[in-house]
Amino acid sequence: MLAMNDIGYRARYAARLARVLDHIYDHLDEPLDIDRLAGIACLSPYHWHRIYQAMYGETLATTVRRLRLHRAAGYLANGSMPIAEIAERSGYSSLQSFTRTFSAVFGVPPALYRKAGTHIRFRPSLADSGVCQMTMRDVVIRDIEGFDVVSVDHVGPYMQIGKAFDTLMGWLASRGLLSNEMRMIGIYYDDPTAVAEGELRSKAGVWLPRAVDVSGDGLVSVTSIAGGRHAVLRHKGPYADMASAYQWLYGEWLVNSEHEAADAPVFEEYLNNPKETAPANLLTDICLPVV
Prior knowledge:
The chain is α+β, with helices and mostly antiparallel strands and 291 residues long. Helices cover 38% and strands 20% of the residues.
């Protein structure tokens, strides 16, 4: 059990490093100056990076590379931006170095990922008479009990909700609340095809094995997820595929099922850790409330 003084000390470090993460997320297109980040953290340039690695479990360079490649996969799967431009925006001096790194992480080069990546399975196949590789059987109907999560609000692109998760993880770590039992939950309130990307509302949440008092804390809150019947699609693959998964879930499965969407937001449960898992092996349950 942490003493109150210990919590206060860790919380101050977590708050300082959260400012660094905010800067990284907001400036992924720019070279990241280590000394400038030390200044943002208000920590010694000689030591702050070791503190960062100890608290977040990865080096700053690993964080930046992971976030840039995650975003690059989204550009490839969901848009038509030229690969050379994606490479430049991802901080690579040459297309060859970007291709080499992307291939090592995602298992295929960028051009092949765009053409035939895992997101393709949600799209109709011309070779298969217009039938999508996904089937109605890939969705399971479950009765889910309601539960509460400790959460941090996020406004902006859904692909950047990791920013709120990192803030939440720092808050939990500063209070000694991280555990193997916690469950990672993302709640999504708006339709990205109808709401401007910068105005999309979501929450990064964590279910904890015991209740936590967050009264008086302006950073986190407790959010309730309503119980009831849900259509659950288990998605395996990069988070960049999610847009295609949702398009199939709503546009193919729901309209061809006996169900209607309930008046409650969709949520996702992340079943493994993106810091420790190859993108192709990430598991996510997409939970759509239905009646």
